[in-house]
């Protein structure tokens, strides 16, 4: 498939999503979620297409994409590890665990390991405050994270 055909296909897929969600009240967030579901991230080109369809500026769409942490500008790794950064998790040792994970993976927040295995993202509450610190790996919650749990999580993302 040549470059032009790929671009046309991307525009077509984004347009179909917009057409499907346009009649919803407040359609921008559903459109962005569907685009990310379709592509694994929000392509830069999608921002202008969405803006045009919703009679908004590209800056308004970009502002929403950059405000919400769940939207990505690049494809995620094979695994997505979200670490809770809320106060309860911080007070129960979340910061040293986060530092150790970042050091072991060799990445920082919103980055993906060079082998594409894992993307590390902060999240600001997983609802497990009484079982802090907490993490989510590929949608599965992990509570009361400690050194042993951390070793298991890191082993899982490396396989």
Overview of the structural elements:
This protein is an alpha+beta fold and 159 residues long. It has 2 domains: 3-67; 79-158, Glutaredoxin (3-Layer(aba) Sandwich), CATH 3.40.30.10. Helix content is 51%, strand content 13%. The protein is built from 7 helices and 5 strands; from the N terminus they run ααααβααββββα. Strands 2-3-1-4-5 form a 5-stranded mixed beta sheet, with helices on one face. α3 crosses α4. The chain starts with a helix and ends with a helix. The model has no long low-confidence stretch (mean pLDDT 91).
CATH topology of the largest domain: Glutaredoxin
Provide the β-strand percentage band.
Answer: 5-15%
Radius of gyration: 18 Å
Shape: elongated
Instruction: Give unreliable regions as ranges.
Output: none
**Strand order, largest beta sheet:** 2-3-1-4-5
Terminus-to-terminus distance: 32 Å
Counting H and I runs of at least 4 residues, what is the number of helices?
A: 7
N-to-C series of helices and strands: HHHHEHHEEEEH
Instruction: Give me the CATH superfamily of the largest domain.
Output: Glutaredoxin
CATH architecture of the largest domain: 3-Layer(aba) Sandwich
Mean pLDDT: 91
């Amino acid at each position: 498939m040549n470059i032009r055909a790929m671009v046309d296909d991307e525009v077509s897929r984004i347009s179909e999503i917009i057409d499907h969600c346009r009649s919803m009240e407040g359609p921008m967030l559903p459109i962005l979620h569907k685009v990310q579901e379709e592509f694994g991230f929000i392509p830069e080109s999608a921002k202008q297409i969405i803006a045009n369809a919703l009679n908004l500026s590209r800056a308004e769409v970009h502002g929403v994409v950059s405000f919400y942490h769940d939207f990505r500008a690049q494809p995620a790794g094979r695994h997505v590890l979200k670490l809770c950064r809320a106060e309860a998790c911080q007070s129960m040792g979340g910061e040293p665990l986060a530092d150790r994970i970042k050091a072991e993976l060799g990445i920082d927040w919103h980055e993906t390991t060079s082998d594409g295995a894992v993307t590390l993202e902060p999240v600001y509450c997983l609802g497990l405050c009484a079982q802090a610190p907490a993490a989510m790996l590929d949608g599965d919650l992990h509570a009361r994270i400690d050194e042993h749990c951390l070793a298991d999580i890191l082993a899982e993302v490396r396989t």
